Amino acid sequence: MGKQISKDYHGRPMVLIGILNGAFIFMADLIRHIKNPLKIDFVRLASYGSQAESSGRISFTKDIELDIKNKDVLVVEDIVDTGYTLKYLKEVLRLHNPASVKICCLIDKKERREVPIEVDYVGFDIPRGFLVGYGLDFDENYRSLPAVYHLNPGYKPGGFTPSDR
Q1: pLDDT digit string, tens, across residues 65-91
Q2: CA atoms lying within 13 Å on the CB side of residue 21
Q3: 81, 108, 120, 137: which one is catalytic?
Q4: Beta bridge partners of residue 102, listed in sequence order
Q5: Which domains does the chain have, with CATH numbers?
């Protein structure tokens, strides 16, 4: 993916904006494969709703610090689900007048999309299931697992079994 991003941006400088907390591991690995000059920043957004469901109401708890005016921006996300968070973030970033805003994600769950949002770079398409590891969490647990695992539907607190998939 990093090789394709480098090619698409033709060596132009970029600003990568990672969405905390989930995207930080993926983003750290991704930037090692992008050959363009780049700067990084992070945002943290809160979506008010239950643990597994978004309400669609979103607010910043950490905003960008870099000036992105006239810059090529690539938003890095761990998982795209309903699309509410990325739609909101993209609208807010456009207020800063960047040259471009594109989206990159590790995992895309297109089947769960509730709002239209274009994802420009996708690592994996996964139809459903709750995933943990490699930055993805369940109630702030399991982020440090070295790979992505499907959380078994029979999960009970205190027990975790990766699926065979």
Answers
A1: 999 999 999 999 999 999 999 999 999
A2: 13
A3: 81
A4: 74
A5: 2-128 (3.40.50.2020), 129-165 (no CATH)
